[in-house]
Amino acid sequence: MHVTAMHYRKDFIVFLHQSQLAGTGVQICDTGEPDGHSFLQGWSGKWLQVHRRPTVPLPASGRYSAAHTTAGSSGTQAALETARDCGLDVVYVCPTREGGGDVRRELEWWFGRLRPGGVMAGDCYVEGTWRDGTRGIKAIVDDFAAGQRLQVRVTFDTPPTWFVVKPPAQATVARQDVALLTAYDSNQQDLATYTTPNKSAYCGRHGYRFIVRTDGFAPSRPPAWSKIRFIKECLKEHEWVFWSDADSLVMNGSTRLEEFIDPNYDLILTHDDFGHGAYNVCTGQMFVRHSKWSMRFLDEVWSQRQFLHDRLWENRAVIHLLWNRDLSRNVQMVSQRRFNSYPRNYRDGDFIVHAAGMRADERLPLIRHFASLARV
């Protein structure tokens, strides 16, 4: 299913129109939010503003009463009836300052009211509390999306907006020409004893080509930089390359790489938020498409010699380019847990766990532990 891009929150209404979503929608907000203040203003569809009532639980079924809303509409109560019939085009979830209610339950309930192809979106995709007192819901959104096997897309705003598209009931994943690429040197040999067989078994299960580089590292640079050259070489033979650092394991072998690929982009990265709402990313796991843009971008990353010995190495170079260029037309950001969970936020069923940024004496026992739990 083709999905129009939304790079910034200001593009939301255009995104809805280009996605041919012009029916009915709802905006969920706190009870203190004034009626008429809506992110759906300007949308050609009909929308209803629903105020959270933490003391009135959402019903188990699709039917609910006026007790769950305090009006506020752009012209019709038809959105309320459409919600009951599970035919909404859009649900916009405003962040909350009240601290009440079950936000995860709220997301699941309203997602059930969306029609296939409908969009659920919201603000404040950060951890903790944002500077204006708004509660970040990043972890909650990630848990919700993982449970539904949804790809959370993240905008380039500060703080970011998140959105998901409800897939068809019988959505199929088309086969892609994609290879899984990793590399390690003598310093990661112990880790590779666990991670290389793990990824080899995963690729064997799905018929992907598995490429392991143990030589050819640039002698004048820290080893992590060589992934840029390795990816370029691999792209000469494949349409897509999934790069995966040697300190990571596939945990859920039933997940296919094609589930993460969006042909509208050249580079797919996970969004790493450090509580600032900034679009920092991790290059430890990433999808790169064979294109002229990708080749030029990889060359440009390689040329950022000012970060040669930065503690984040080539990852810092990518962050630098994202911060200083508008790369939104070519780069897609998705939720961090989508294919780059860390030990601290890993949940059973996540695709990959990545022991990034850990001391060597911590990583090996952790990788050994997770390897015993992996289902490939």
What key phrases describe this protein's structure?
10 helices; 376 residues; single chain; two-stranded antiparallel ribbon; alpha/beta; 14 strands; Spore Coat Polysaccharide Biosynthesis Protein SpsA, Chain A; Rossmann fold; twelve-stranded mixed sheet
* Structural class based on helices, strands and sheet pairing: alpha/beta
**Quaternary structure type:** single chain
Question: In CATH, what is the class of the largest domain?
Answer: Alpha Beta
Q: How many helices in DSSP terms?
A: 10
CATH H-level homologous superfamily name of the largest domain = Spore Coat Polysaccharide Biosynthesis Protein SpsA, Chain A
Tell me the domain tally.
2
Distance between the termini: 28 Å
What is the architecture of the largest domain at the second tier of CATH?
Answer: Alpha-Beta Complex
Average pLDDT number = 86
Characterize the biggest β-sheet. Answer: 12 strands, mixed
Helical fraction: 25-40%
- Secondary-structure element sequence? HEEHEHEHEEEHEHEEEEHHEHEH
Describe the structure.
This protein has 376 residues and is α/β, with parallel strands linked by helices. It has two domains: 9-165, 3-Layer(aba) Sandwich (Rossmann fold), CATH 3.40.50; 178-373, Spore Coat Polysaccharide Biosynthesis Protein SpsA, Chain A (Alpha-Beta Complex), CATH 3.90.550.10. 27% of the residues lie in helices and 20% in strands. The strands form two sheets. Strands 2-1-3-4-6-5-13-11-12-9-7-8 form a twelve-stranded mixed sheet, with helices on both faces. Helix 3 links the parallel strand 3 (88-93) and strand 4. The model is unreliable at 59-76 (pLDDT under 50).
